Amino acid sequence: MRPDLDIVAGLVGSGVRVLDLGCGDGALLEALIQQQGCDGLGVERDLDDFHACIARGVPVTHGDLEAELADLETGSFDCAVLSLTLQAVRHPDRVLTEMKRVAPRLIVSLPNFAHWRLRADLFFRGRMPVTPSLPYQWYDTPNIHLCTLRDFEAMVDDLEMKVESTVPVGADGRRAPGLAGLARNMLAVRAVYALSARAS
User: Fold this and answer.
1) Can you list the domains of the chain with their CATH numbers?
2) With 0-12 CB in 10 A as exposed, 13-18 as middle and 19+ as buried, what is 67?
């Protein structure tokens, strides 16, 4: 399992009903079910990853997460997870709104396109950066919405949600040490957020 998924699992907690959107090969959901006593459902579009989930014995549906979300009942889960997928969906704001409808707690991780290495690469080379954590060329990337952590936090506020906690993540997929917590928009390669609806 990717190291950053350990962070996600820690924020999800134990014994909860979990919806894992864009669940990939099901590694996170398998760990949540077997190690943390959660009930879960994954949604995955990629057919190979869908079959990998089946092989793991993970409950999963095959389809586009934006379409699948609309069919889920309000409040049917305790926690909804979206890991390194928000930047690849067509309507990130609608996805978060629907996640909030089906679960009171959200765990969202995303890459940070304002990381200093990306800024420097763009400044000095004048080309869209390619890094180990963002290994695509501009013309074949699945990432269609390139946002910074500040952009994401502003959208969360616009959607009347609040950030319960934020974990800055380094290039190795683990919690970033030191100053990354204070200057995450500059120093974090990605971040994991725990979100909830803001009280009216």
Assistant:
1) 3-112+144-197 (3.40.50.150)
2) exposed
